[in-house]
Automatic annotation (TrEMBL):
SUPFAM superfamilies documented for this protein: Class II aaRS ABD-related, Class II aaRS and biotin synthetases
CDD domains referenced in this protein's UniProt entry, alphabetically: GlyRS-like_core (cd00774), GlyRS_anticodon (cd00858)
Domain Aminoacyl-transfer RNA synthetases class-II family profile span(s) in chain numbering: 7-338
Stored NCBIfam families: glyS_dimeric, PRK04173.1
HAMAP family the record matches: Gly_tRNA_synth_B (MF_00253_B)
Name the UniProt record assigns to this protein: Glycine--tRNA ligase
Assembly mode: Homodimer.
């Protein structure tokens, strides 16, 4: 198969109901996207997969859902008010905007070709401001959070006291963040409104390197469990010039998207920067007391920060395949892991008469208690299979005339297109076992 383009993914998302342009009937809003019937299921399933991996399967990680609006002093303590700015220039001719540190100011504008057309660099605040209360003045300015991590740090003490967790332990959160990005591009990869899946792991300062290495490898293995092709994943360690002001060590997990290698997740050793700053700005003691050694210290933090919306784009890109069948027909298929597929089981009557539709609808309703299902009785059976392949449905059930005689149905597997005959009472257990044993071919 030829290398797919981002336009191919965008077209599929619109055509099949994964992602729509926000406010499309009004001409759309740049950098804003709506997740359609299939897209919201895919996004929720990825989030659930991550949550099970990071929280439900571990004794020493708890969950949190912090508010989007926080006290403005939070962002002073975190350094965002001081450091969350970028220098911008505009082209006087075409009005295009660029980051001053990513363009040659002595060259021509890359959009319109005009020379000597750039304005003087000026600072651009990446945080969205709003006001808390009906009156807009300087005294009630608040920000839409640019990251979810700070909500975890300011609740660190609450979680220790209520959950009785002991260092080393983690706090995980999935939530929306907002950044007034200068350049929003590549579909849902970089947007002003996005969702993060973050886990902050609190450790003894002397054990920071051990846990940094642990989470670096553990997070890479997560993507392989998700069914992502290993040759599309790599580490990108941060050099001294790339490290954020809070980081001692950092590495990105990158994925080869249709537009090239891009950051998917960051793993950072944030040292004691965050808790120390919040302790200083709030006046609250955020040290931790080890009840065995009686040692008191400010924990170091190992952060794993992944983009949920970026993960959706990654999964779509990685799952997309076009293959030529033996009859010369081209099949488009999304090879999602069954645990994240928007629809798990498609149910079809062979024809719409002789009671097959009624039987199939009743069966689909029974299966709905166990799986995400979709009922389809329109068109030839082969065409219905192709529609389910294109949205990534891993299993399809066909009800035919033999079904009425002996309660057996045809179970079709998406990846191999193999079809087997099983009794209707075996469907649930057979599919659950297939999901448990699933391994994508070639991964």
């Amino acid at each position: 198969m030829e290398k797919i383009t981002l336009d191919t993914i965008v077209s599929l998302c619109k055509r099949r109901g994964f992602v729509f342009q926000s406010s499309e009937i009004y001409g759309g809003l740049a950098s804003a996207w709506d997740y359609g019937p299939l897209g919201v299921e895919l996004k929720n399933n990825i989030q659930r997969f991550w949550w099970n991996e990071m929280v439900r399967s571990r004794r020493n990680i708890v969950g949190l859902d912090a508010a989007i609006l926080m006290h403005p002093r939070v962002w002073e303590a975190s350094g965002h008010v001081e450091n969350f700015h970028d220098p911008l220039v505009d082209c006087k001719q075409c009005k295009s905007r660029f980051r001053a540190d990513q363009i040659d100011l002595t060259a021509a504008c890359p959009v319109c070709g005009t020379k000597d057309s750039f304005t003087e660099p000026r600072q651009f605040n990446l945080m969205f401001k709003t006001h808390l209360g009906p009156v807009e003045d300087e005294s009630n300015i608040v920000y839409l959070r640019p990251e979810t991590a700070q909500g975890i740090y300011v609740n660190y003490k609450n979680c220790v006291q209520t959950s009785r967790v002991k260092v080393p332990f983690g706090i995980a959160q999935v939530g929306k963040a907002f950044r007034n990005e200068i350049v929003t591009k590549n579909f849902i990869f970089r947007t002003c409104e996005f969702e993060q899946m973050e886990m902050q792991f609190f450790v003894k300062p002397s054990e920071d390197k051990k846990w940094f290495d642990y989470w670096k490898e553990t997070r890479m293995e997560y993507y392989k469990k998700l069914g992502i092709r290993p040759d599309k994943l790599r580490f990108h360690p941060h050099g001294p010039d790339e490290l954020a002001h809070y980081a001692k060590e950092a590495v990105d997990i990158e994925y080869e998207f249709p537009m090239g290698w891009r950051e998917l997740e960051g793993i950072h050793n944030r040292t004691d920067f965050d808790l120390s700053r919040h302790s200083e700005y709030s006046g609250k003691d955020l040290t931790y007391l080890d009840d065995q050694t009686k040692e008191r210290f400010v924990p170091y933090i190992i952060e794993t920060s992944a983009g949920l919306t970026r993960s959706v784009l990654m999964v779509l890109s990685d799952a997309y395949e076009e293959e030529t069948l033996e009859n010369g027909e081209t099949r488009t298929v999304l090879r999602f892991h069954p645990l994240i597929a928007p629809v798990t089981v498609g149910v079809f009557p062979l024809v719409k008469k002789d009671g097959l539709s009624e039987y199939a609808m009743e069966l689909e309703e029974e299966l709905r208690e166990h799986f995400s299902t979709f009922y389809d009785e329109s068109g030839a059976i082969g065409r219905r299979y192709r529609r389910q392949d294109e949205i990534g449905t891993p299993y399809c059930i066909t009800v035919d005339y033999d079904t009425k005689e002996n309660d057996t149905v045809t179970l079709r597997y998406r990846d191999s297109m193999e079809q087997v005959r099983i009794h209707k009472n075996e469907i649930v257990d057979t599919i659950k076992q297939a999901i448990k044993d699933y391994k994508r071919v070639g991964v």
